[in-house]
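Budget justification aside, the reviewers requested a transparent look at the raw inputs and outputs of the sequence design task funded under Objective 1. We therefore reproduce one unedited record. The lines immediately below are the structure tokens for a 257-residue chain.
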């Protein structure tokens, strides 16, 4: 749980933050971040032997700042729909995080009143939805955090069908250059239309987060998009991200072009 971060966006109701600190302590999670103000003093009453988590809480002015050093971001939301797709259930989220324990992952929870803004939601490539009564789907903030942490803490590792030799997923600092490379190739090859109905930046971010790409997979994406660029423009496109030749063993019959 050391690489797991609970992020609350502008919590407003007294006691919620204290209750969350207590449940975090129950499940051995000590990293609490808040976008907005420091918890009120009455939160300490409900923290119950978890005051240290409140003492060490980190506050940020924006969600962008709060997630800047994290590798994976999952937003919890009660809202579902065409423009708000659900990527995972709480149990699936637990399986996802269990497979990338070496990476820093943030679980983002919105305001008690209206959740996350569209702009804030777009910063979170993955979305988790807790099933509840459709007529009354909104959970209390502390209860939502409880569901998320219990699923992760109690997750049976053996139930996750994954080979032990599965290549290690790459951190965000290696994924972002590839995502930008793809977008740059799409721009220079005339992929985009005048009136796009798809937010391709968000799509690529979501896709890469869902894939949890290995070093080899990132190399293949770079290779594939470079070839697209050659086919359309007649020349290759340079890459300023990871030095693949220096950082990985390529197959005998491959080069980095």
């Amino acid at each position: 749980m050391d690489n797991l971060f609970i992020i609350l966006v502008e919590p407003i109701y007294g006691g919620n933050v204290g209750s969350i600190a207590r449940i975090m302590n129950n499940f051995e999670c000590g990293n609490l971040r808040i976008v907005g103000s420091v918890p009120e003093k009455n939160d300490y009453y409900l923290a119950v032997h978890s005051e240290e988590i409140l003492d060490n809480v980190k506050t940020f002015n924006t969600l962008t700042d709060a997630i800047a050093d994290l590798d994976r971001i999952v937003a919890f939301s009660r809202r579902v729909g065409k423009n708000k797709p659900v990527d995972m259930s709480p149990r699936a989220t637990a399986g996802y995080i269990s497979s990338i324990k070496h990476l820093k992952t943030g679980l983002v929870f919105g305001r008690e009143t209206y959740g996350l803004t569209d702009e804030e939601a777009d910063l979170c490539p993955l979305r988790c939805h807790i099933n509840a009564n459709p007529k009354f789907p909104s959970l209390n903030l502390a209860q939502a955090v409880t569901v998320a942490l219990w699923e992760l803490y109690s997750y049976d590792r053996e139930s996750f069908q994954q080979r032990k030799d599965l290549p290690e997923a790459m951190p965000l600092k290696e994924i972002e250059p590839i995502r930008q490379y793809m977008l740059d190739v799409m721009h220079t090859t005339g992929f985009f239309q005048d009136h796009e109905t798809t937010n391709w930046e968000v799509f690529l971010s979501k896709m890469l987060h869902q894939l949890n790409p290995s070093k080899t997979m990132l190399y293949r994406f770079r290779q594939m998009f470079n070839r697209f660029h050659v086919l359309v423009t007649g020349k290759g496109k340079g890459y300023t991200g990871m030095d693949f030749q220096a950082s990985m063993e390529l197959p005998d019959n491959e080069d980095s072009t």
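Residues 215-233 form the longest helix (19 residues). DSSP finds eleven helices and six strands in the chain. Computational costs for records of this kind are itemized in the attached budget.
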